[in-house]
Design brief:
This protein is of the alpha+beta class. It is built from eight helices and 17 strands. The protein is globular, with a radius of gyration of 20 Å. The C terminus is likely disordered. Bound molecules: 4'-deoxy-4'-aminopyridoxal-5'-phosphate.
Length: 317
C-alpha cells in the first residue's frame, strides 16, 4: 500500500506560521503520554472559484467542542482557527489536500493525571493524502473486528479525542493483518457502530440506513453531508441500529469520512455485499458528494470555503 506523502513544510503552531522542523514536542508532553488532545481532519479540493476547504467551519466548530470536552485551553476563536487552516493551505500549496489541526496538552514537568497549569498547544498541518482507502479492487473489503467499539460510557465519542484512536488503531491493524482494507466495529450491544475512521451506511429495501448517534459513533461531518444530500435526492434516510446479520444482506454498504470520502464496501468477512459494487445508490451519492465538495452544486456553496481565489491570484501577478 502506498503511504501518504510527508507532511509539508509549514505548520501553524500556537498562532504563527513556522517551518515544521522548528517545532519541538517535549517527550514529557501529556498529549504524547495519555492521548490528551483532540484533532480534526479536513480536505481541500480544487473548485472553479479556486482551492477550497470543505465544511471548514463545521470541522473547526467540532474541534472547539472536542477541546471543550477535554478542557483544553484553546484560546483561538472559530474565525482565527479557520483562517489558520487557510494560511497553512496557502503556504503549502495545492499538493496539500488533507489538513490536520490538533490541540494537545504540553508539559509542566510532572506526569500525574491531575495535571494543572499545563499549556495547551494548537497546531495545524497538512499532508498530501490522495485516496485514503487504496485497495485495488472497486470497494473496500471489511472484517468485523474482534474488538468492541468503546461506548459513550467509557469516553465521549462525540469528541474527537486523540486517545480514543487506540481503539481504531487496533481494529484497523487487525483488518490489515487479515488482508482486509477496513474494520467494521460493533458496539457493546453487538450492533454495527462504525469503521475505524468512517461512518457506515447501508441500502436496504430502497432506504438509506445508518447507525444513530447513540450506537457509539463519531458524529461524522461526511455522514451529515450524505444524509442531507440523500434526503434532497428523495431517499428515505433512517438513523437506527443495524445488526451484524442485517448488514451482510444489505443491497449496498458504503463508508463515509473526510479522508475516505464516500467509499463503497465490496465484502464483509469474505461475504460479498449486493449484486454490484458500487451499487446504484452509492454511485449516485458518491458523484453528488464529489460535485458538492468541488463547489459544482450551487445550493451547497456555503460548505465550500475558498482558500485563495483564482481571480485574486491572477491580479497579483
Ligand atoms: N468515525 C471515526 C471514528 C472517525 O475518526 C471519522 C473521521 N473523522 C469518522 C467517523 C468520519 O467523520 P468525518 O466525516 O467527520 O470525517
Amino acid at each position: 500500500m502506498k503511504k501518504a506523502e510527508a507532511i509539508e513544510d509549514k505548520v501553524w503552531f500556537d498562532g504563527n506560521l513556522v517551518d515544521l522542523k522548528e517545532v519541538r514536542v517535549s517527550p514529557l508532553a501529556y498529549g504524547l503520554h495519555y492521548g490528551w488532545g483532540v484533532y480534526e481532519g479536513l480536505r481541500a479540493y480544487d473548485t472553479k472559484r479556486g482551492r477550497a476547504v470543505f465544511r471548514l467551519r463545521d470541522h473547526m466548530s467540532r474541534f472547539l467542542d472536542s477541546a471543550r470536552f477535554m478542557q483544553l485551553d484553546v484560546t483561538y476563536s472559530l474565525d482565527e482557527l479557520c483562517e489558520a487552516v487557510k494560511a497553512v493551505c496557502r503556504a503549502n500549496g495545492p499538493q496539500a489536500d488533507y489538513i490536520r489541526p490538533i490541540a494537545y496538552y504540553g508539559e509542566n514537568g510532572e506526569l500525574g493525571l491531575s495535571a494543572v497549569n499545563v499549556p495547551t498547544h494548537v497546531a495545524v498541518m497538512t499532508i498530501h493524502m490522495g485516496a485514503y482507502i487504496r485497495g485495488g479492487a472497486p470497494g473496500a473489503s471489511l472484517i468485523t473486528s474482534s474488538w468492541e467499539r468503546p461506548s459513550d460510557l467509557a469516553t465521549s465519542l462525540t469528541a474527537k479525542v486523540c486517545g480514543n484512536y487506540v481503539s481504531s488503531i487496533i481494529a484497523k491493524r487487525e483488518a490489515m493483518r487479515q488482508g482486509a482494507d477496513e474494520a467494521l466495529m460493533l458496539n457493546h450491544n453487538g450492533s454495527v457502530a462504525e469503521a475505524s475512521a468512517e461512518n457506515v451506511f447501508m441500502v436496504r429495501h430502497g432506504k438509506l440506513i445508518t447507525p444513530g448517534l447513540s450506537e457509539g459513533i463519531l458524529e461524522g461531518i461526511t455522514r451529515d453531508t450524505v444524509i442531507k444530500l440523500a434526503k434532497e435526492a428523495g431517499y428515505d434516510v433512517e438513523e437506527r441500529s443495524i445488526t451484524r446479520g442485517e448488514i451482510l444482506i444489505a443491497d449496498e454498504v458504503f463508508l463515509t469520512g473526510t479522508a475516505a470520502e464516500l467509499h463503497p464496501v465490496r465484502s464483509i468477512d469474505g461475504i460479498s455485499i449486493g449484486k454490484e459494487v458500487p451499487g446504484p445508490v452509492t454511485t449516485e451519492l458518491k458523484e453528488l458528494y464529489g460535485k458538492v465538495a468541488r463547489g459544482e452544486v450551487d445550493s451547497h456553496s456555503e460548505w465550500v470555503d475558498i482558500i485563495d481565489k483564482k481571480v485574486a491570484r491572477r491580479r497579483k501577478k
